[in-house]
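Why do we care about 3D structure at all? Because function follows from shape, and shape follows, mostly, from sequence. That is the central idea of this module. The next example makes it concrete: a single protein chain, its amino acid sequence, and then its structure expressed as tokens.
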Amino acid sequence: MIRNTQQMKEMNRYRRQLWLGLILIMVFSGPGLTLASGEKNDPMPLAAGMAVTRAQSLMAEEKPDQALAVLIRYSEKQAEPVHFYIDFLTGICHTELGQTGSAATAFQRAVDKKPDLSPAWLNLARCRYEQGQMTGAARAFENGYETSDKKQAVHLFYAVSCLFQAGQADDALSVFNRLMVAHPEAISLEWKQTLVHILFALEKFKTALPWLEELAEKTQGEGRRQWQEMLLYQYLSLEMKPDALAYASHLTRIHPEDPGWWKALAHVHLADNRFEQALAAMLSRSYLIPLNREESRLLADLYLSSHIPESAARQYEEWLSQHGDTLSEIQLLDIITTISRAWLAAGNTDLVLAWVEKGLAKKEDPELVRIRDYVLATRKVPD
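And the structure:
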């Protein structure tokens, strides 16, 4: 549950992160014309160059609609496919106007004509992301990375994020592994969070463990606790009991004021039937905050399992006084029987009989009758 809830929250955060991080790449050069890479091998016709120059001038004046009209008029007059840069600049204009679908079509034409045009690939990736086409976005980011003269790690990371959102965790992991080899210095804690989620999705929990340990140690702020909880959960689910105990104990030492870690430590002890240690941890929690219904009952059970029957009986009595009106008849008789047994273990036969009679007044319960008969048969008669 912890893992699934956290993963959902983190995925939503990464969607926002990806959206904010996708930078629109425009290639403008002022009054003159400068083509993207490959200019010498892809000469632009004079008329095309004039259309581009005019469109760029209008874009600089923040008139993308007029710039687009110039490019469309030029394109419609051509019998042959237009230069790739016309398509690229057309895509930029559509993007500025919020016309994502048309922008994607134009960028796609540009990369079909010039597959090494990195800015077109990256803008196409952004469009595919906005269209919800995560697989297409990922491939465009990869191509944008491959064709760029200066390869940026962030473009591979965006490809990873898109593949993961598309449900292609295996492919996302492959690209992330490639990212770590090519740009080990660029791998931030946030990116490692994505890696952990990918590994969780692939159920590679042991592989994720070293990364999870690093996140639990180095993450700052509120997010750190979530990673600490996930790490402790993984230790338990992977049957790494010594590690779970050591980590839970460590958390209570560095955060003794946090009742949550005392409860976690109690459950670690319970997983190995260390009732006295679990009792001590739950008592520490109770000193910090009031226990809820389930925790109060657990405290009573731990007293009993730790062979402290009088404290168990009193804790059960307190629990019953607070929650008795919510119990069914069967549940009520069960707790009365438990209290009776606790007082019997404590050697207080008067309270045993008192509680037995309370129960029998509600129903003739065979177990309560046996307890009463035992007490009466073994009770010492005063001289």
